[in-house]
Amino acid sequence: MPCVDQQEVDRYWNALTANGGTPGRCGWLTDRFGVPWEIVPQTLGRMMKAGNREQTARMMGALMQMAKRDVATIEAAFAG
User: Fold this and answer.
1) What is the CATH number of the domain that holds 65?
2) Alpha helices (H) in the chain, listed in sequence order
3) How many domains are contained in the chain?
4) What does pLDDT average to in each consecutive run of 10 residues of the chain (80 residues)?
5) Of the candidates 57, 63, 49, 46, which has an alpha carbon nearest to the alpha carbon of residue 80?
6) How far is residue 61 from each of residues 11, 13, 32, measured CA to CA in Å?
7) Which of 6, 26, 35, 77, by CA, is between 20 and 30 Å from 70?
8) What domain range is 63 assigned to?
């Protein structure tokens, strides 16, 4: 699910993990009905297109350590 900003990431994440949903890794979660969702900040796609190999590698390294995606951490990893 594409999200405009961190506030939207948080809103969807909190709503979908409430009442029995399960957080996963790398932006994935499973809602209370067993449906998997990936919560993706739109800035992620823009950075992947614009970044060089080093920037993308740093960003991916940060992503792999997250459950819910944190836009500020992703942007900091990308910037170096």
Assistant:
1) 3.10.180.10
2) 6-17, 42-50, 53-64, 71-79
3) 1
4) 95 96 95 97 92 94 95 95
5) 57
6) 24, 21, 29
7) 35
8) 2-79
